[in-house]
TrEMBL record:
Transmembrane segments: none annotated. GO terms for biological process: response to antibiotic. This is Erythromycin esterase. It comes from Paenibacillus curdlanolyticus YK9. PANTHER family: ESTERASE, PUTATIVE (AFU_ORTHOLOGUE AFUA_1G05850)-RELATED. Gene3D superfamilies: EreA-like (biosynthetic domain), EreA-like, domain 2.
C-alpha cells in the first residue's frame, strides 16, 4: 500500500510555490461557481496566507464576488463594511477587527486577515458599491449579537415592524445570554423560542429586494442576522441530545447562508469559501458518513456538481495557535511530525518540499485508498496526536490538495503590527 501511494504521489505532485505557478489547478478552479479553500487548523499562518493569494487571483483575474468564511455574521459584517470603505468604518484595520471577541478570536483577528482586509479595501476603493468585493460570515454562534443587531437596525428604520423582534428578544432574555442554559430549557423542558424565531425571519426575509441601492446590504444584514438566530436556536436546542444532528444543523445553515449571499449578488455571482477541511472536504469520503454527518462540501457538491471546486490543506510539522481547552488562553504549540502512513507522512516521505496535487483522471488509483488525514481544532493536545486523524479518501474528498512540509503559527491581533 505504501509503495502504491508513494508512486501515485510522485506522478501527481508538483512543487508548490503559490497559485500563480499552479496554472492547471487555477484553470479548473476559476471555471467553478464555488471555490472552497480549506485548512487543517484554525491557527496556521501558511493556510491563511495561501488562501489570501488564491482569493486575490480569483477576484482580480476571474471576477469572484465575495469571500464567505467560517465566522459569525455580525463581526464579519463589521469587517465587510471596512473593506468596502463604508462611512464610519475608520481607517485603521485594527478597529475593524475589534468585534472578533468570541473565543477563539484569533481565527479572524490576526495579521493575515488584516493584510487581506487592507488589500480588499484598496481593491474596492474605485468601485461602485454594487461592484465591491465583500467579506461575510456564514456561521451561527452569534445568537445574542445578532438579536442586538436586528433591534438596532429596526429601531433605526422609522415605521418598521418591531413586534416580531421584541417577541424573540423577550423569549430569549430569561436565559441570560447563556447558550447552554437556553439549550437545556428548549431541549429538555420544551421551553424554546422556535416560533418567535421563525416569525422574526419571515418579517425580514428578502426585504433587501424592496429597498434602494444604499440600503440593500443593510437589509440583507438584518435578514442574515435573523437567519443566524434561527440557526443558533436550532443548534443549541439539539446539541444537548445529538452531536451528529447539531453538526448537521450548523453545516446546513452555512450552506443556506451561502445561498442567500449568492441570491443577493446575482445569478452570475461566484464565491470563495474559507472553512476548515472538516467542512469543505466532502464528508462522504471520510468516517463522518458512518456517523450520519454531512458537511458544506458534500451539500454543495450534491446541489451544484461540477460547479464546486474544493482545495484541501495539510502539513507535516510546525507550530500552531490553539487552546488547551475551550475558552482557554491561546497558546503557540508544536505540531509534531505526522504519524506513520498518514497522507501527510507519505507526502513528506516522497520529498520534503511543498506540493500541490490535482485529482483528475490520473488520480483514479487513489480512489480506493483510505488513510489518516490530520485535522487540528481550536482545542488541541499535541500529545494525543493519533486522535486528530480523519480516515480519508483524499482524491475524492477534494479536487486538489496543497501540502506544506513546515508550517508556522499565525499572528493574533494582540501581537500584530500592521504596516500601511
Amino acid at each position: 500500500m505504501e509503495h502504491h501511494v508513494l508512486q501515485a504521489i510522485a506522478r501527481l505532485a508538483r512543487t508548490y510555490t503559490g497559485p500563480e505557478e499552479a496554472t492547471s489547478v487555477m484553470e479548473r478552479a476559476s471555471k467553478s461557481r464555488f471555490v472552497l479553500l480549506g485548512e487543517a487548523s484554525h491557527g496556521t499562518s501558511e493556510f491563511y496566507t495561501d488562501r489570501v493569494a488564491w482569493s486575490k487571483q480569483l477576484i482580480t483575474d476571474h471576477k469572484f464576488r465575495f469571500i464567505a468564511v467560517e465566522g459569525d455574521w455580525p463581526s464579519c459584517y463589521t469587517l465587510n463594511r471596512y473593506v468596502k470603505g463604508y462611512s464610519n468604518t475608520g481607517d485603521d484595520v485594527r478597529d475593524a477587527l475589534q468585534d472578533f471577541v468570541r473565543w477563539p478570536s484569533w481565527m479572524w483577528a490576526n495579521r493575515e486577515i488584516a493584510e487581506l482586509a487592507q488589500w480588499l479595501r484598496s481593491y474596492n476603493a474605485d468601485k461602485a458599491d454594487a461592484e465591491k468585493v465583500g467579506f461575510y460570515g456564514l456561521d451561527m454562534y452569534s445568537l445574542w449579537e445578532s438579536l442586538d443587531e436586528i433591534m438596532k437596525y429596526l429601531e433605526s428604520k422609522p415605521g418598521s415592524d418591531l413586534e416580531a423582534a421584541k417577541r424573540a428578544f423577550e423569549c430569549f432574555e430569561p436565559h441570560g445570554r447563556d447558550e447552554q442554559r437556553y439549550g437545556v430549557s428548549a431541549s429538555l423542558y420544551g421551553e424554546g423560542c422556535h416560533g418567535e424565531v421563525v416569525d422574526l425571519l419571515r418579517t425580514l426575509q428578502n426585504k433587501w429586494k424592496e429597498v434602494g441601492q444604499d440600503d440593500r446590504e443593510k437589509a440583507l444584514s438584518a435578514e442574515m442576522n435573523a437567519l443566524a438566530v434561527q440557526g443558533a436556536e436550532a443548534y443549541y436546542s439539539t446539541m444537548i441530545r445529538h452531536d451528529a444532528e447539531s453538526w448537521n444543523i450548523r453545516d446546513r445553515h452555512m450552506v443556506e447562508a451561502l445561498a442567500k449571499l449568492m441570491a443577493f449578488h446575482g445569478n452570475e455571482a461566484r464565491a470563495i469559501v474559507w472553512e476548515h477541511n472538516t467542512h469543505i472536504g466532502d464528508a462522504r469520503w471520510t468516517d463522518m458518513a458512518e456517523e450520519g454527518m454531512v458537511n458544506v462540501g458534500q451539500l454543495l457538491r450534491e446541489k451544484y456538481n461540477e460547479e464546486v471546486f474544493a482545495i484541501g490543506y495539510g502539513t507535516y510539522q510546525g507550530t500552531v495557535v490553539a487552546g488547551r481547552s475551550w475558552g482557554a488562553p491561546l497558546s503557540e504549540m508544536k505540531v509534531p511530525k505526522a504519524i506513520s502512513n498518514s497522507w501527510e507522512e507519505l507526502l513528506h516521505r516522497s520529498g520534503a518540499e511543498d506540493k500541490i496535487l490535482l485529482f483528475d483522471k490520473r488520480a483514479k488509483e487513489l480512489d480506493e485508498v483510505t488513510l489518516g488525514h490530520r485535522a487540528i481544532g481550536v482545542v488541541y493536545h499535541p500529545e494525543r496526536e493519533r486522535g486528530n486523524y480523519v480516515p480519508t479518501v483524499i482524491s475524492k474528498r477534494y479536487d486538489a490538495f496543497i501540502y506544506f512540509d513546515q508550517t508556522h503559527a499565525l499572528t493574533p491581533l494582540s501581537k500584530m503590527v500592521v504596516h500601511p
